[in-house]
Specification:
mainly alpha, elongated
Length: 139
């Protein structure tokens, strides 16, 4: 009735705790998928080279490192390691594409699993009206 009615001052129930497995999917998507994608891209590029796939020649070979970067002596071993990686540009481009594809598939599967595990209506939600009769508007 009034604003100060005790029925209006009830506190909502605390939110339900999520099961820890749902938090693990975020880690899977953000950390493990790029690693899997890089490994798969490396294997696919090597397979493609052996079977003469049309891979752009600009992406093949060792990466080019600007001469000014070699002047930083502390980073010399890093640049040497990066230059020892053959076909790095092709592998990174394919790994980026595979990461997007794998994260999309994982997100869709996660949404399906979450939808099937969580109830449709929570305690604070009202179910949709079942018997609503709408009158046609007439002037």
């Amino acid at each position: 009735m009034g604003v100060y009615n005790p029925m209006n001052n009830r506190q909502p129930p605390p939110p339900a705790e999520l099961h820890p497995i749902w938090r693990g999917f975020g880690c899977l998507i953000s950390l493990i998928m790029p690693i899997i994608s890089y490994a798969a891209a490396s294997i696919i590029i090597d397979f493609g080279i052996q079977h003469n796939w049309p891979i752009p020649y600009q992406l093949m070979g060792p990466p080019a490192i600007h001469p000014l970067l070699w002047k930083v002596t502390a980073l010399g071993p890093l640049w040497a390691f990066i230059q020892s990686l053959n076909n790095l540009y092709a592998i990174l481009a394919l790994a980026f594409l595979l990461t997007i594809i794998l994260e999309t598939i994982t997100s869709i599967l996660y949404a399906i699993m979450y939808r099937s595990a969580v109830p449709r209506y929570r305690p604070l939600d009202a179910p949709p009206p079942s018997n609503v009769k709408i009158k046609r508007y007439k002037r």
